[in-house]
Please model this.
Amino acid sequence: MDYAQQTANGEIIILPSLLAADFGYLADGVRQADDAGADGLHLDIMDGHFVPNLSMGPDVVAMANRTTDIPLSVHLMMSKPAAYLERFIKAGADVLLIHIEIEGDVPAMLQQIRRLGARPGITLNPDTPAEAVFDVLPDVDEVLCMTVHPGYGGQHFIEGVLPKIRKLRSHIQAKGLCVDINVDGGIDLQTIRPAAAAGANVFVAGTSLYRAANMPESVAAMRALAGQFYDSMKE
Ligand code: DX5
Ligand code: ZN
Model:
Protein backbone atom coordinates (compact mmCIF):
# COMPACT_ATOMS: atom_id res chain seq x y z
CA MET A 1 0.00 0.00 0.00
CA ASP A 2 1.34 3.42 -0.93
CA TYR A 3 0.06 6.97 -1.44
CA ALA A 4 0.76 7.25 -5.19
CA GLN A 5 -2.91 7.78 -6.01
CA GLN A 6 -3.25 10.54 -3.43
CA THR A 7 -0.25 12.50 -4.70
CA ALA A 8 -1.30 11.96 -8.32
CA ASN A 9 -4.50 13.74 -7.34
CA GLY A 10 -2.47 16.63 -5.95
CA GLU A 11 -3.05 15.74 -2.31
CA ILE A 12 -0.58 16.71 0.39
CA ILE A 13 1.07 13.90 2.38
CA ILE A 14 2.00 14.29 6.07
CA LEU A 15 4.42 11.74 7.57
CA PRO A 16 5.27 11.77 11.29
CA SER A 17 8.86 10.64 11.88
CA LEU A 18 9.05 7.80 14.41
CA LEU A 19 12.51 8.97 15.49
CA ALA A 20 10.78 11.54 17.68
CA ALA A 21 8.53 8.97 19.42
CA ASP A 22 9.28 7.55 22.87
CA PHE A 23 11.61 4.58 22.17
CA GLY A 24 10.25 2.81 25.24
CA TYR A 25 6.84 2.66 23.58
CA LEU A 26 7.57 2.55 19.86
CA ALA A 27 4.42 0.61 18.91
CA ASP A 28 2.37 3.29 20.66
CA GLY A 29 4.21 5.87 18.57
CA VAL A 30 3.18 4.02 15.41
CA ARG A 31 -0.46 3.86 16.55
CA GLN A 32 -0.37 7.52 17.51
CA ALA A 33 0.53 8.51 13.93
CA ASP A 34 -2.20 6.26 12.53
CA ASP A 35 -4.81 7.57 14.98
CA ALA A 36 -3.80 11.15 14.15
CA GLY A 37 -4.82 10.66 10.52
CA ALA A 38 -1.28 10.74 9.12
CA ASP A 39 -0.89 9.58 5.49
CA GLY A 40 2.01 7.33 6.42
CA LEU A 41 4.94 6.93 8.78
CA HIS A 42 8.58 7.93 8.21
CA LEU A 43 11.28 5.66 9.68
CA ASP A 44 14.90 6.80 9.93
CA ILE A 45 17.60 4.15 9.55
CA MET A 46 21.09 5.34 10.58
CA ASP A 47 24.25 3.25 10.28
CA GLY A 48 26.73 5.18 12.44
CA HIS A 49 28.86 5.77 9.32
CA PHE A 50 26.91 7.82 6.77
CA VAL A 51 25.69 9.78 9.78
CA PRO A 52 27.27 9.74 13.26
CA ASN A 53 24.13 8.35 14.92
CA LEU A 54 22.55 4.86 15.14
CA SER A 55 18.79 4.43 15.24
CA MET A 56 16.70 1.45 14.15
CA GLY A 57 16.77 -1.52 11.75
CA PRO A 58 14.47 -3.84 9.76
CA ASP A 59 12.87 -5.31 12.91
CA VAL A 60 11.44 -1.91 13.82
CA VAL A 61 10.04 -1.57 10.29
CA ALA A 62 8.48 -5.06 10.67
CA MET A 63 6.97 -4.01 14.02
CA ALA A 64 5.46 -0.90 12.40
CA ASN A 65 4.11 -3.06 9.58
CA ARG A 66 2.37 -5.35 12.09
CA THR A 67 1.01 -2.39 14.01
CA THR A 68 -0.50 -0.21 11.26
CA ASP A 69 -1.82 -0.31 7.70
CA ILE A 70 -0.65 3.21 6.80
CA PRO A 71 2.27 3.29 4.30
CA LEU A 72 5.81 3.08 5.65
CA SER A 73 8.43 5.39 4.16
CA VAL A 74 11.91 4.20 5.12
CA HIS A 75 14.81 6.67 4.92
CA LEU A 76 18.15 4.85 4.70
CA MET A 77 20.97 7.02 6.03
CA MET A 78 23.46 4.28 5.21
CA SER A 79 26.76 4.37 3.29
CA LYS A 80 26.20 0.90 1.80
CA PRO A 81 22.47 0.15 1.66
CA ALA A 82 22.62 -2.27 -1.32
CA ALA A 83 22.73 -5.45 0.76
CA TYR A 84 19.76 -4.34 2.91
CA LEU A 85 17.19 -3.19 0.35
CA GLU A 86 15.40 -6.51 0.15
CA ARG A 87 15.30 -6.90 3.93
CA PHE A 88 13.65 -3.53 4.40
CA ILE A 89 11.08 -4.19 1.69
CA LYS A 90 10.32 -7.64 3.11
CA ALA A 91 9.93 -5.99 6.50
CA GLY A 92 7.20 -3.78 5.03
CA ALA A 93 8.76 -0.64 3.51
CA ASP A 94 6.38 0.85 0.93
CA VAL A 95 8.79 3.67 0.04
CA LEU A 96 12.55 3.17 0.26
CA LEU A 97 14.78 6.24 0.11
CA ILE A 98 18.53 6.08 -0.37
CA HIS A 99 21.02 8.98 -0.49
CA ILE A 100 22.74 10.26 -3.64
CA GLU A 101 26.00 10.85 -1.69
CA ILE A 102 26.64 7.14 -1.04
CA GLU A 103 29.07 4.65 -2.55
CA GLY A 104 27.94 2.19 -5.20
CA ASP A 105 25.63 2.04 -8.19
CA VAL A 106 22.72 4.27 -7.16
CA PRO A 107 20.61 3.78 -10.35
CA ALA A 108 20.92 -0.02 -9.97
CA MET A 109 19.77 0.20 -6.34
CA LEU A 110 16.79 2.37 -7.31
CA GLN A 111 15.82 -0.09 -10.05
CA GLN A 112 16.13 -2.97 -7.57
CA ILE A 113 13.81 -1.18 -5.14
CA ARG A 114 11.20 -0.85 -7.89
CA ARG A 115 11.63 -4.50 -8.98
CA LEU A 116 11.08 -5.58 -5.38
CA GLY A 117 7.75 -3.73 -5.35
CA ALA A 118 8.46 -0.54 -3.37
CA ARG A 119 8.52 3.12 -4.42
CA PRO A 120 12.14 4.21 -4.98
CA GLY A 121 13.28 7.57 -3.66
CA ILE A 122 16.50 9.59 -3.78
CA THR A 123 17.65 11.88 -0.97
CA LEU A 124 19.91 14.94 -1.03
CA ASN A 125 21.80 16.39 1.92
CA PRO A 126 21.43 20.16 2.41
CA ASP A 127 24.74 20.92 0.66
CA THR A 128 24.17 18.64 -2.33
CA PRO A 129 23.00 20.53 -5.45
CA ALA A 130 19.78 19.70 -7.29
CA GLU A 131 21.75 18.76 -10.41
CA ALA A 132 23.28 15.79 -8.56
CA VAL A 133 20.00 13.87 -8.88
CA PHE A 134 18.84 14.99 -12.35
CA ASP A 135 20.11 11.80 -14.02
CA VAL A 136 18.32 9.46 -11.61
CA LEU A 137 14.95 11.25 -11.61
CA PRO A 138 13.48 8.88 -14.25
CA ASP A 139 14.25 5.99 -11.84
CA VAL A 140 12.43 7.44 -8.80
CA ASP A 141 8.95 8.20 -7.55
CA GLU A 142 10.19 10.52 -4.82
CA VAL A 143 12.95 12.99 -4.06
CA LEU A 144 13.73 13.91 -0.46
CA CYS A 145 15.41 17.24 0.26
CA MET A 146 17.00 17.21 3.70
CA THR A 147 16.25 20.53 5.39
CA VAL A 148 18.64 19.71 8.27
CA HIS A 149 21.96 17.87 8.26
CA PRO A 150 20.88 14.23 8.72
CA GLY A 151 21.53 12.28 11.89
CA TYR A 152 19.37 13.86 14.56
CA GLY A 153 15.84 15.07 15.13
CA GLY A 154 14.96 18.41 16.66
CA GLN A 155 17.23 20.62 14.53
CA HIS A 156 16.40 23.94 12.86
CA PHE A 157 15.05 24.08 9.30
CA ILE A 158 17.72 25.32 6.84
CA GLU A 159 16.09 28.00 4.67
CA GLY A 160 18.96 27.90 2.20
CA VAL A 161 17.52 24.61 0.84
CA LEU A 162 14.41 26.36 -0.55
CA PRO A 163 15.90 27.45 -3.92
CA LYS A 164 16.99 23.84 -4.51
CA ILE A 165 13.43 22.58 -3.90
CA ARG A 166 12.13 25.14 -6.39
CA LYS A 167 14.76 24.13 -8.95
CA LEU A 168 13.88 20.44 -8.55
CA ARG A 169 10.16 21.10 -8.87
CA SER A 170 10.57 23.15 -12.05
CA HIS A 171 12.97 20.57 -13.54
CA ILE A 172 10.54 17.71 -12.76
CA GLN A 173 7.76 19.77 -14.32
CA ALA A 174 9.80 20.67 -17.41
CA LYS A 175 10.70 17.00 -17.99
CA GLY A 176 7.08 15.90 -17.56
CA LEU A 177 8.03 13.54 -14.73
CA CYS A 178 5.76 12.48 -11.89
CA VAL A 179 7.97 12.74 -8.80
CA ASP A 180 6.92 13.71 -5.29
CA ILE A 181 9.19 16.06 -3.36
CA ASN A 182 9.66 15.33 0.35
CA VAL A 183 11.14 17.71 2.87
CA ASP A 184 12.59 16.32 6.10
CA GLY A 185 14.00 18.21 9.08
CA GLY A 186 12.66 21.05 11.19
CA ILE A 187 9.21 20.98 9.57
CA ASP A 188 6.51 22.64 11.66
CA LEU A 189 3.49 24.90 11.18
CA GLN A 190 5.78 27.77 10.18
CA THR A 191 8.41 26.13 7.98
CA ILE A 192 5.89 24.00 6.08
CA ARG A 193 4.68 27.16 4.32
CA PRO A 194 7.85 28.14 2.42
CA ALA A 195 8.63 24.44 1.79
CA ALA A 196 5.22 23.94 0.15
CA ALA A 197 5.49 27.22 -1.74
CA ALA A 198 8.83 26.02 -3.14
CA GLY A 199 7.15 22.86 -4.49
CA ALA A 200 7.35 20.17 -1.79
CA ASN A 201 4.23 17.98 -1.43
CA VAL A 202 5.34 15.32 1.11
CA PHE A 203 6.22 16.56 4.60
CA VAL A 204 8.14 14.64 7.25
CA ALA A 205 7.80 15.99 10.77
CA GLY A 206 9.22 14.43 13.92
CA THR A 207 9.57 16.75 16.87
CA SER A 208 6.78 19.14 15.91
CA LEU A 209 4.21 16.32 15.67
CA TYR A 210 5.29 14.01 18.52
CA ARG A 211 5.67 16.97 20.90
CA ALA A 212 2.39 18.57 19.79
CA ALA A 213 -0.35 18.89 22.41
CA ASN A 214 -2.77 17.32 19.93
CA MET A 215 -1.23 15.34 17.05
CA PRO A 216 -4.48 14.91 15.05
CA GLU A 217 -5.05 18.67 15.06
CA SER A 218 -1.45 19.36 14.09
CA VAL A 219 -1.55 16.84 11.21
CA ALA A 220 -4.76 18.45 9.90
CA ALA A 221 -3.37 21.96 10.32
CA MET A 222 -0.14 21.05 8.48
CA ARG A 223 -2.08 19.43 5.65
CA ALA A 224 -4.34 22.48 5.28
CA LEU A 225 -1.45 24.96 5.35
CA ALA A 226 0.64 22.97 2.89
CA GLY A 227 -2.36 22.70 0.55
CA GLN A 228 -2.79 26.44 0.71
CA PHE A 229 0.86 27.21 -0.07
CA TYR A 230 1.79 24.29 -2.35
CA ASP A 231 3.01 25.33 -5.80
CA SER A 232 3.06 22.41 -8.22
CA MET A 233 4.14 24.84 -11.01
CA LYS A 234 1.74 23.05 -13.32
CA GLU A 235 0.25 26.25 -14.70
C1 DX5 B 1 17.00 13.44 10.52
C2 DX5 B 1 15.86 12.57 10.08
C3 DX5 B 1 14.52 13.17 10.21
C4 DX5 B 1 14.12 13.53 11.61
C5 DX5 B 1 13.33 14.79 11.51
O1 DX5 B 1 18.20 12.86 10.16
O2 DX5 B 1 16.02 12.19 8.72
O3 DX5 B 1 13.53 12.33 9.63
O4 DX5 B 1 13.33 12.57 12.24
O5 DX5 B 1 13.08 15.24 12.78
P1 DX5 B 1 12.55 16.70 13.11
O6 DX5 B 1 11.22 16.83 12.45
O7 DX5 B 1 12.52 16.69 14.59
O8 DX5 B 1 13.56 17.66 12.52
ZN1 ZN C 1 14.32 11.13 7.75
Q: What stands out?
A: The radius of gyration is 16 Å. Residues 94 and 165 are 23 Å apart (CA to CA). Residues 17, 42, 44, 75, 184, 204 surround zinc ion (ligand 2) (CB under 6 Å).
